[in-house]
Amino acid sequence: MSDVRLALCHSIRSGGLCISEAARRFGVCDRGRINFKTYRILCGSGIAGQRVRVEERDREVVVFYCSRQIRCLSHDQLKPDIIL
What we know:
The structure is a single chain. The protein has one helix at residues 3-9, and strands at residues 12-14, 17-19, 23-27, 33-36, 39-42, 51-56, 60-65, 68-74. The chain is mainly beta. The strands form 3 sheets. Strands 3-6-7-8 form a 4-stranded antiparallel sheet, with no helix packed on it. A two-stranded antiparallel sheet has the order 1-2.
């Protein structure tokens, strides 16, 4: 990987994938949800105890399990008092 790409990405190496600073990892609770900022996002009880990656983009928040996208929520949908 070139120095330029490292500088642009400010990356964390994880399983050969380059994950930008905008992506964070969260553990899924036993009820199948994560807490991201002030929001509660449902990921599914089938992956309770596992870790997911959350990317915050310009207009949406995207949740990945392994390399698969499992949720994509717009910022308009996110509300602090509702589990989505």
